[in-house]
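Entry 14. Ran structure prediction on the chain below.
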Amino acid sequence: MRLKQVKIRNFRCYKDEIAINLDDITALIGRNDAGKSTVMEALDLFLNDGLPDKHDASKGGNAQDLAITCIFDELPETLVLDQKAYTTLQDEYLLNADGFLEVYKIFNGALDKPKLTNQGVVSFFPTNNELNNLICQNNQDLKSIVERLGIGDDVEDKKVNAQLRAAIRNHAGELNLQSGTISLMEGNGPSIWKGIQAILPAFALFKSDRASTDQDAEAQDPLKTAIKEAIKEKEAELNQLSEYVEKEVSKIADLTLSKLKEMDPTLANTLKPTFAKPNWSTVFKASITGDEDIPINKRGSGVRRLILLNFFRAKAEKLLREKKKSSVIMAVEEPETSQHPRNQRLLLAALSEISVYDQVIITTHTPMLARSMPAQSLRYIYSEDNGDRKIVEGGNDETNKLIADSLGVLPDHSVKLFIGVEGKHDIPFLKNMSKVFINAGEDALDLEKMVSVRANPPNRKQTGLIS
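Output, structure tokens:
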């Protein structure tokens, strides 16, 4: 499955609903506090079953209607919904009018502890007679409808809800399809939602402001997993060791009791040690060290973050295996943070490679990363004068210019020469020298026509960009 679009409403800076289209790899670009991280955290909240906190509702919006919607394409051919029998999203009329899976969650963010108030699908579903909200009927209700319609012989196994629903739809004739929302909160709805959840992509978020020590949870998790797996392989031997220890300690306890009885038989009749089952995974402590046994938290910030980024990649792969998901969405905030330009390029190459199989979403302020990505993968988020958030897609001159202005660079590769000078008088000097060479018959650039001057703050060098 692939996340095609996310919609956010009344969540933090997004009071009015905003829709963001996503590609195999997508870069969110914008100034600080534009709303890039909010998009990432909305997806994390949605796909990892989180809850907003009391400050997440948009100021001035409807706090009781804090909504996140995800639209998916590249859907599985079959799935298991409320029972073990396979069915399809198409047959169950769980797709929207465009044929995509559109799922939503709505929270009441006005509470001190916000809670989920509704979740379901936006679909193009039948409404004729018995068909309205058929998906939320339990097995007994479905069998009652089948018996009333006299179509029991059309159902091979009445224990299978999918077969019962199919028989009822086939009997209905005209379906009267219409678009709308189907809440999956009541009746058989939660079972259907659980079946849908099972096919959604796993989501892993690496934040830009995270800690970066060898005891950081993100770094520890893969190591703890490795410890558990190693212990499991030797579990039988460890149990033998535990039994040996218990046996030897019991011998000492029995001998102590016999000696005690020699001194005073009334003190005790038994002296039996009680053993707690050992938790072997807590016995072994792992820490990350590099060359010359230097802990990671004593290395440079760039090295620490680079190591953790790769632990993050390992954890995402582990998440894929554990949850038996068909795909992963890997979200990385500002992968360039604290990284040398060479490492920035390597990171982008690694993320681009991942995007062949799984989706990647990044936020960035770095011109090099933005220019290395397809223009169509760029999303520019900005705030209008009235505070409304807008998002535009890259790939056209107008958006490219907005991105260029935000990052401080041109969006294309037409720049041939960059010159930094000490003061404003140096610019006329270079232009005049250009004319002198041209008038002397030399093949020189006409800087008067080509230069684009950027005036910098006082006491700073001025720059010229030549196309």
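The first strand starts at residue 2 and ends at 9. Will compare against last week's run tomorrow.
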